[in-house]
Amino acid sequence: MKKAEYFSKDFDWDELRVEVENDPSFSYHLLPFQPSLSVAEQGESQPWNDFHNRHSSGKFFKERRYLLQEFPELVSCEENSRVLEVGCGNGSTVLPMLRGNEKVTVYACDWSTEALERAKETIYASNIVSIEHRFHTFCCDFSTSGFPTWLTYNPCQANFEQTSDGRGNSETCLNDSSSLKESRRCIGGVDFVTLIFTLSALSLQRMPKSIKECFSVMRPGGMLLFRDYGLYDMSMLRFEMDKRVGFREYMRSDGTRSYFFSLDTVRDLFMGAGFIELELEYCCVKSLNRRNGKSMRRVWVHGKFQKPV
After folding, report:
1. Residue 39 lies in a domain
2. Domain tally, the chain
């Protein structure tokens, strides 16, 4: 498929903003909001666990074939590069990465055990070359407990690795409680982190810590690849007033969350964690609803961020 179908400027975001902000029927989306403590602190993993259990067939999500077009670094990266896919869901992001580059190893985590089971079923059914050595899963809620220690980058470990094989395959981890089935070896940082429609599932209060966790597991010079819901996306405007749980934050009837990002919010979050901004823009795409024939205006935020060398 052509790149334009996935990442294009089918319409001007500022024109959409003016239209929404001048439409009285959307005015409640613009009002200040102070979320209650009970809503802000409630757990986010169980609703998603239930969600993936309901959609156990794996057909709810389609493979994200646009991924390598929007993030070609995943194809052109060095041999043995390590990718951490945060919030892997049913594997719709992992699959094109493993197919598109036989030289990368993907570590995929999710806070939902159901999602991890679906991801493993999807990946192992794909008959990808050497999959048993290049795909590893573990359960983790990075927004609360952080990532496991074997994944984290630290300078002392990096110095040790330079005397071994240069890729962190020499130091054995202690007290590893992850669900990885491979031998317990320290990774010592990853080259890429992908956050694809994951951050929006968290409450805004948890986002700064979560992004700092991503920063901590990356090697210097590593890149974080980001794509998520943008402000005034069609799905945001469909939420009714009683679904608001914060400013630009909404909760679906099944208990799962959705936040809608402005460029300024994304910039502040990632630069506040220490990242350097490489790319950041709205992706505005018109798509056709085949059921009713209506045109839908989708807005996503596309970003690339780098950990300083």
Report:
1. no
2. 1
Q: What is the structure's pLDDT at 49?
A: 58
Residue 129: CATH number of its domain: 3.40.50.150
Pair of tokens at residue 71: 């993030």
| pLDDT confidence of residue 186 | 76
d(Cα 279, Cα 270) in Å, to the nearest integer?
12
Over residues 108-125, the pLDDT tens digits come to 999 888 889 989 988 988
Share of the chain above pLDDT 90, in %: 59
Give the CA count within 13 Å in the CB-facing half-sphere of 88: 32
Give the single-character DSSP code of 290: T
The SS3 call for residue 33 is coil
Asked if the structure places residue 30 within a domain, the reply is no
In residues, how long is the chain? Answer: 309
Q: Average pLDDT in the 294-304 region?
A: 93
In contact, 254 and 44? CB cutoff 8 Å:
no
- 271 lies in some domain: yes
pLDDT tens by residue, 48-102? 555 555 555 545 556 777 899 899 999 999 999 999 999 998 899 999 999 999 9
Look at residues 123, 130, 140, 222 and name the one whose alpha carbon lies nearest to residue 180.
Answer: 140
Full DSSP string of 233-283:
-HHHHHS-GGGEEETTEEE-TTS-EEE-B-HHHHHHHHHHTTPEEEEEEEE
The domain of 286 spans 3-24+45-306
Residue 29 falls inside a structural domain: no
CA distances from 146 to 36, 94, 133 (A): 25, 21, 25
Task: Compute the distance between CA of residue 109 and CA of residue 128 in angstroms, rounded to an integer.
Answer: 19
